[in-house]
Amino acid sequence: MKLCRNILSNGACTTPFCRFDHTVLACEPCGYIAERPYLYQNHLKSKEHLVTVTGENQTFFCSICDINVNGGDWKVHCTSLQHRTSATAKRVSLNVEPEHGVSTDSETYCPVCRFTVKTWFWNRHSNGEDRQRKERFLQFRAALDEAEKDKNAITVEGVTDFGFVAPKTAKQGLLCDLIMKSSEPSGRSVLIEARLASQKATRPYGSGFSLEAVAYNEPISSAEPRSLTYGFEQKYIGRYEDRLELVFEDTQLKKRFVISRLLRAIVGNQAEHEALRPIAPYVPRKRTTRTPESQVVPGVPPPSSTAVPYVSKLPFADIPVNLYNLLTDSRSQMKKLADIKKLYLPGLFLSQTYARQFENLLWIEEHQTEADLERYDMTGARLSKWNQYYYLAIPGLAEKRPSVLVGDRILVQVQSERSGRWFEGHVHVLRQNEVGLRFHTTFTGWSESKLYDIRFKLNRIVLRRQHQALDSAFEEDRVLFPEARHAGAIEYTWKIAPYNPLIASNECQMDAVKSIVHQGPGGVPFIVFGPPGTGKTITIVEAIRQLLKMKPNCRILACAPSNSAADIIAERLTVGLTANELFRMYAPSRSKADIPDKLRDYVHSSPDGHFSVPSMGRLKNFRVVVATCVSAAISTNIVLSGDPKQLGPIVRSGIARRLGLEMSYLERLMGRDIYDVKKAHGKTVVKLTKNFRSHAAILKFPNERFYAGDLDQCAKPSVINACLSSPFLPDTDFPVVFHAVLGKDDREASSPSFFNIDEALQIKSYIRQLKENRKFRTTDRDIGVIAPYHAQCLKLRTALRSVADGVKVGSVEEFQGQGRKVILTSTVRSSKDFVDYDLRHTLGFVANPRRFNVSVTRAQSLLIIVGNPHVLGLDPLWRSFLNYIHLKGGWVGPDIPWDSSEAVDAQGAYDKSVRDQAHVDVNEFTRRMEELTLGQADEENDANVDRPWRDVE
């Protein structure tokens, strides 16, 4: 075994990932121990590992100066005046190799931790947990090295790594012989015991490996070698390991010794794995800071930029210089956070301070968004030219990475120039993989061979509109901080006859419509709290139609967070409303090819053909205007529809999230007393409780966890029962499956986004079976695949190309508000790191409760989740959900690694308990090896890469 010894200068490790006993992982430089294999790349890229292998936290001794030097300061020391003076005095070369630190009168060198501590602190350090951990590791490493050696004239030979094993072959089973040989003719050693580590761990588990035939107590000599047969049998794809421990006895010395071997196998189709393997080894992209542009030559904006005649000019609202400097300094995020709270945010969050609070949060978010855009900057790019346009090919454009719209700005500079002068190119043409730009007339000298540097700039129009709104004098408590005194009494004066007959039998929907219609002018915002599949859109559309009927003079502005959601509302309102009554407002940059046919008569265009708005006089005559939120303004009465338990706004800045920008307006209001769903039903809020989407088994867990069990399953039986009794279900009456896959998460090239080939291929297998089953016919349009990482979405689309090219694959955000007959989810993560990363970093997006809620509530009749239970089980929410599935009989694959009947501690630090169990296993292994040995044993910012970009149209 290799223990992380081949370290490159950048801190990366070139050895096979450190593994030993099937229950633990180890890194020699850090003395790091984790539970179970699954390749812990995170640790190898963690701060602790990098600092350790580069020597920054070690103490070195300079033999020229006779002093101890901190490892991080070694290079500086070697060029210092003191070092030069000492070398000159001793007449030796300046170049000197660092030696281990030495103890002095005031310092004691710790050979275990490899740094010095103050002598008065030595007792505390030597008894500290960190040193004890490293001591245990050294003991374990010594025992492990000893166990893996051939010894006492005995050698063990044979295949221990099967590599790729075809699923069919693995299911049938494999047998392999290990040969035990001796170089001595007398045959004094015998095998007395053979055992697998999987059965000696704290919680025994099935690894797929087994002992089939063992020759015990037979002398092993040079003339008579002995054999041992072990087998591997596994029904499920994934990566499997175990450790075989062979206990021998020297019959002459009457002493026992151990020789161990690591057994490995990957169950899967090798050709399919090869097709999805990393295109290049992952190398973290160095984050560089852009040098400021000293001069930007303005480009030519597209005609759409003037298609809308705005009444008032937008403010520039640039980030204040002092705030910008604070955000760009090198201090930790927590220190920046403290200064921002102290210097920029108001002490009290009130209507009067509301604008100041959010102005600063918007600037903080803008700064992070601009920094994230730097990831997509290009060097050495070429431009092609056609007429007045210069075309730039952009990798990832079709995936909105980066997100580019008509009217956006892209800066271009000749690569050889290397100055602060850049040319601004406005996007005029948007294609799948390239954009067409127009520059100032002074942009000359272009040629096809010339290389350019490219910078993507943030489109600040939406931000400027937000700042414009905050600059207004609006400070009404009834809207921003509503209280009971602001809520007027509701008088029900009209009898409601629903347009949609389905609403008539739904009491909560009827209550919401009645309350909205009978709200008096100037009341508090009314909330329609709509959990998944409860008919929020139907309710709002019905309320709009009733308002138009009961109040002929009312004017309604209907807003949605995305164009697709706004289109749904507008399409349903076309029934009964003419083009003179309904106006669907689009951004000028939007393509007319994306507009639903039903809405083509409900838009307005400028003379040059771009979307626009009519005159103010005509605009006021429309009874309903439908737009996205960025085009909206606050009116007399506000009705909010949504679910604070589902996804909130996309916020890229960690500082802004901590300071509250991620909490939506609706979520903040629902935290106030007057929106208590039990006490204020029909007055300020209505909670919709009938779910028309999912089977009861799919709905049960999120219903109890997020909605107090209030939701009733009311979907059509013909839809939700469509997959019952299918061969995909372990329990034919329970349409929820968790398929445990012990895979490997990976990254490639410079992308920090994770993917998992084993999970992708398991998803592919399920979809192939779904489509081939004639009894339970399923089309591509019936299936949705959710993955939290962009790289996994790409791998899944590649894998499905030959099987089901029409299946939608996307992030959780792309599925909010939608449902599918069948939903499959790949959770991706299969590595654990317990040193520098907390649970949130280890699981990433997977551990977000709102993402969890959305992902498990999209399915109508079948929900299949593929993931690694050892990782998911670290999170109490996922642990509870996996318990629910296991106890209901929906588990497939290697068994659950804990007792599913045990209560889950909602605040449980399960990562710590797993780490503690790993140490128990390590200590037990060390103890066994020391007892069974002939001699004494001798004494290791990329969070936003998968966060989607907001739809800014």
TrEMBL record:
Start and end residues of each DNA2/NAM7 helicase-like C-terminal domain: 666-869
Source domain of life: Eukaryota
EC class (word): hydrolase
Compartmental location: Cytoplasm
Record-listed E.C. numbers: 3.6.4.13
Swiss-Prot/TrEMBL catalytic activity: ATP + H2O = ADP + phosphate + H(+)
Compositionally biased intervals (Basic and acidic residues): 944-953
Keyword set, alphabetical order: ATP-binding, Cytoplasm, Helicase, Hydrolase, Nucleotide-binding, RNA-mediated gene silencing
Keyword Cell inner membrane applies: no
Disordered: annotated segments: 931-953
Entry's Gene Ontology BP terms: regulatory ncRNA-mediated gene silencing
UniProt domain Helicase MOV-10-like beta-barrel: residue ranges: 376-456
Domain DNA2/NAM7 helicase helicase: 505-591
Sample GO molecular function, one term: hydrolase activity
Coiled-coil positions: none
InterPro entries to which the protein is assigned, alphabetical: DNA2/NAM7-like_C, DNA2/NAM7_AAA_11, MOV-10-like_beta-barrel, MOV-10/SDE3_DEXXQ/H-box, P-loop_NTPase, SF1_C_Upf1
Matching Gene3D superfamilies: P-loop containing nucleotide triphosphate hydrolases
GO cellular component, one term: cytoplasm
Family (UniProt): Belongs to the DNA2/NAM7 helicase family. SDE3 subfamily.
Name this protein carries in UniProt: RNA helicase
Organism encoding this protein: Candolleomyces aberdarensis
Organism taxonomic ancestry: Eukaryota, Fungi, Dikarya, Basidiomycota, Agaricomycotina
